Amino acid sequence: MKIGVMKNQMPVTISPASPNEHILMAGTSGSGKSTRIKSMLKDCLERQETVIVIDINGCDFCQLDEKVNIISALEDGLNFSPLDIGKRNEDGYVGYISYIVESFSSIASLGIRQMGVFREAVIYALDHRKEYGNDMLAIAEGLRLQDSNVATGVYNKLWNLLNSKAFQRGNRHCMKAGTINVISLKGINPSTQKQIAELMLFAIWKKCRVMEGKGISLRIVLDEFQNLSLKKGSVLMEMLREARKYHVKLILATQSITSFPKEVLTAVNQTAVQLYFRQTSSDVKKTAELIDPQQRGRWVLILKKLAVGESVATGDFLVNGKEMSQPIVIRTAFPKSFADSKEKKLQIF
């Protein structure tokens, strides 16, 4: 995948020898991260890759091209059934229920007793889902019918999510293979955006693991990914560690990684390529240390002089087809147009 160009326009791509195809991007707002992502997506569209962009910030990628598939969670609905997250579980019905409960528990930090009442709500919802407008309403009713303090607490904890318009049964748009699917969470409150994004990642990850990489290859773009759960065992950390064998590739963007806990920093630095855009004054020295601790002073000066759209690249990459081992400065190759792509439905949710 093309990640940028040199000053002389020579292309820079991820090395095929890399253990994965994940990309990490870090830089201040306005440093050119979004434009670089759009340039990468142009490359994906030309190759008819299937891409899912979970846009938390609000339509940053909605003006890419008319052929890009834009899905507004509030206006269109997600065509996403949370009760299908655990389908095709190798542990049968018990595993099916458990995976759904674990997914919600992860995004809402449910305790043992809370998980118990939520499990009962899920069982009720599965038995009565056809009686409700969507899965979330069925789960909500399953909690209310239990009439206990614990169930009421779980309902209140998940109230925004359970009542979100994002889970209306939409028909205007569905996911499409071989193109870019931008899922816009614009207009949804931040805490619910985070929960929806993580539920979708659980569903995508489950599908990919069931398929065992057969017949499905995805690139997932997550801007401001630091807002998602990065704790041990979270779906995003699992993807970083195991995604290659399931043909899942991540593009992760954030403003800063220097404040991440050590274990998270170690995980995100296992990406194939790290792209460091313009940094805040408080992050410059720490970022230079990540780039090359032996020449920190040199990279401090380079980071301070980066123009908008420029970044320092580290990791496994090729320059004009040749392996490079040292950090380099690359820039965005601005796309002129997007290539045609065939449309076919993508069965994820």
Automatic annotation (TrEMBL):
Keyword Transmembrane belongs to the record:
no
Q: Does the keyword DNA-binding apply?
A: yes
Query: What SUPFAM superfamilies does UniProt report for this protein, alphabetically?
Result: P-loop containing nucleoside triphosphate hydrolases (SSF52540)
CDD domains attached to this UniProt entry: TrwB_TraG_TraD_VirD4
What domain of life? Bacteria
Keywords, comma-separated and alphabetical: DNA-binding
Residues of the Helicase HerA central domain? 3-201
This chain's protein is named Type IV secretion system DNA-binding domain-containing protein
Q: Which organism is it from?
A: Candidatus Blautia stercorigallinarum
